[in-house]
Amino acid sequence: MVVQLERDEILLLFDVDGTLTFPRTVIEPEMEKFLYEKIKPKATIAIVGGSDLEKMFEQINGKRILQEFDFIFPENGLVQIEKGKEVGSANIKQHLGEATLQRFINFVLRYLSELDLPFKRGTFLEFRNGMMNICPVGRQCSREERNLFNEYDNEHHIRQKMIDTLRKEFHDVDLTYSIGGQISFDVFPKGWDKTYCLRHIEKVGNFKEIHFFGDKTEPGGNDYEIFVDKRVIGHKVTTPHDTKAILKEMFAI
Ligand code: M1P
């Protein structure tokens, strides 16, 4: 059905990896042009990603996104940016407390130190505002190594096995685990998934429709909770080209 709403009545909320860009690559110029010139005049636009803001800059063509998007929600919306300015953030340090955090971090480092992989690089745990990102192969791996690890993981389920172990070991701690990308997984308190950004949207906007576009919409994927949320109309995509095709249909472009 073709959208009949005014710009401030409809919000389009996009995941990044696999939705606006191909995984861990830069947005295609054509997609950018389409979004800013054809869609932005017709709808409020926002991004919600698992990554932090720096990685969003890398993928969606630098700081320009601060001017182009009405809202930016890095780390699932645990950081909230409105019209280019940070207006709020949530903090995992305060939420969990130092003792629990250290118990968790020490366990992760011990687990990883005993894990044999075909290769390992550096930065195995990235501590962000509202989440931790755990990467068995190390975030400093090259693009080629990233792809190789991803294939290895598809066969050996390294990330899923580690998540299962963490779930058991930390059953008493308010944490949830989500695989959003190719080489790592995110850990954050329950409810701090992508639906977290809706708390901010509900405070500041009065949208008649909120559409979400994402690729990891299956249970366990980091788009799942928001995709099935009743406040949102979910669109499953597999590539940015899919996203564009749905938008073209929605706005009869
Ligand atoms: O797609 C979102 C994910 O992107 C990265 O994942 P990976 O490096 O494993 O491909 C990370 O920033 C992760 O936190 C994020 O959810």
What's a quick, concise take on this entry?
By secondary structure, this protein is α/β, with parallel strands linked by helices.
Structural write-up:
The structure is a single chain. This protein folds into two domains: 7-90 and 193-250, HAD superfamily/HAD-like (Rossmann fold), CATH 3.40.50; 92-189, 2-Layer Sandwich (Hypothetical Protein, Haloacid Dehalogenase-like Hydrolase, Chain: A, domain 2), CATH 3.30.1240.20. With 253 residues, the protein is α/β, with parallel strands linked by helices. The mean pLDDT is 96. It contains ten helices and eleven strands. The strands form two sheets. Strands 5-4-3-2-1-10-11 form a seven-stranded mixed sheet. It has a four-stranded antiparallel sheet with strand order 6-7-9-8, covered by helices on one side. Strand 3 and strand 4 (79-82) form a beta hairpin. Bound molecules: 1-O-phosphono-alpha-D-mannopyranose (M1P).
Give a quick account of the main beta sheet: strands, pairing sense, barrel closure: 7 strands, mixed
Order of helices and strands: EHEHHEEEHHEEHHEEHEHEH
Q: Strands across the major sheet, in which order?
A: 5-4-3-2-1-10-11
Question: Could you say which overall geometry the principal axes of the C-alpha atoms support?
Answer: globular
- State the domain count: 2
**Share of residues in helices:** 25-40%
Q: List bound small molecules.
A: 1-O-phosphono-alpha-D-mannopyranose
Q: Alpha-carbon distance between the termini?
A: 13 Å
CATH class assignment of the largest domain: Alpha Beta
What name does the CATH topology of the largest domain carry? Rossmann fold
Runs in which pLDDT lies below 50 for 5 or more consecutive residues are none
- Compute the number of strand runs: 11
- In CATH, the homologous superfamily of the largest domain goes by the name HAD superfamily/HAD-like
How much of the polypeptide forms β-strand, as a percent range? 15-25%
Structural class: alpha/beta
Quaternary: single chain
Mean pLDDT: 96
Rg from Cα: 18 Å
Report the total helices. 10
CATH architecture verdict of the largest domain: 3-Layer(aba) Sandwich
